Amino acid sequence: MRAIRHILRLHASGASDRSIGRSVGAARSTVQDTLKRAKAAGLTWPLPADLTDTLLEQRLFARSGVKTGLRRRPEPDWAALAREMKRPGVTMTILHEEYRAAYPDGYGYSRFCDLMREFERRLSPTMRQNHVAGDKVFVDYSGKKLPIVDPATGEVRHAEIFVAVLGASNFTYAEATWTQQLPDWIEAHVRMFRFFGGVPKLIVPDNLKSGVHKASFYDPELNRSYGKLAAHYDVGVLPTRSRKPRDKSKVEVGVRFAQFYILGRLRNRTFFSLAEANAAIAQAVERMNASLMRRLGTSRRELFESIERPTLAALPAEDYEFAQWQFARVGLDYHIEVEGFFYSVPFGLIGEQVVNRHRRTNPSRAERNAWVQRRKMGIWWGHNWRR
Question: Taking the complete model, does pTM exceed 0.90, yes or no?
Answer without folding.
Answer: no
